[in-house]
């Protein structure tokens, strides 16, 4: 699997605990990748770490699962969104899956001072309809460290031919 914008998130710890071993973490920030690798210690040595911008990265292999929490919604330029979708489509094998989590329509319109695009599961499905079929979606209210609530939508989609 590949975690897009994995940054310092503990998602990687969770997938390792589940027994997954072929795991790639991609992030724009080398600082974030180094912090995650340091935290994981020896367990991080078996992972693939890619310091890349998702809007310019070209995948060189395919994955069963693509996971993105809170990256796609930062892409406000249509050209960047098109580049992301191109990489997503190339990187996920037929019948593989992607989980794309973004702020929901009633979520914040900015994050860390940056503008975001908010999506419903229906928006995500329409945007990716050429190559992905919707499977399931879930709403989640994320509690920030300062106690604020942020509404997310998580879309699970399947790569179709
Ligand atoms: C809001 S954080 C989310 C981190 C993690 N996915 C989580 O849910 O906790 C966004 C992450 O995406 C990375 N990021 C932002 N734009 C990116 C891009 N164009 N390409 C790759 N990573 C990017 C940031 O460096 C940061 O680590």
Automatic annotation (TrEMBL):
Domain Methyltransferase: 2-96
InterPro entries: Methyltransf_25, SAM-dependent_MTases_sf
Pfam families referenced in this protein's UniProt entry, alphabetically: Methyltransf_25
Superkingdom of the source species: Bacteria
Name by which UniProt lists this protein: Methyltransferase domain-containing protein
Organism this protein belongs to: Tropicibacter naphthalenivorans
């Amino acid at each position: 699997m590949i975690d897009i914008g994995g940054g310092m998130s503990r998602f990687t710890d969770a997938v390792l605990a589940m027994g997954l071993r072929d795991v790639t973490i991609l992030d724009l920030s080398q600082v974030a990748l180094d912090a995650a690798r340091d935290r994981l210690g020896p367990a991080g040595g078996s992972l693939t770490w890619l310091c890349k911008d998702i809007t310019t990265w070209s995948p060189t292999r395919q994955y069963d699962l693509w996971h993105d929490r809170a990256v796609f919604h930062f892409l406000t330029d249509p050209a960047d969104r098109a580049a992301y979708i191109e990489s997503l489509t190339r990187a996920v094998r037929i019948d593989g899956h992607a989980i794309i989590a973004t702020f929901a329509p009633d979520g914040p319109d900015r994050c860390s001072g940056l503008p975001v695009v908010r999506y419903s599961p229906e928006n995500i499905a329409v945007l990716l309809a050429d190559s992905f079929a919707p499977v399931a979606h879930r709403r989640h209210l994320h509690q920030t460290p300062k106690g604020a609530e942020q509404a997310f939508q998580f879309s699970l989609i399947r790569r179709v031919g």
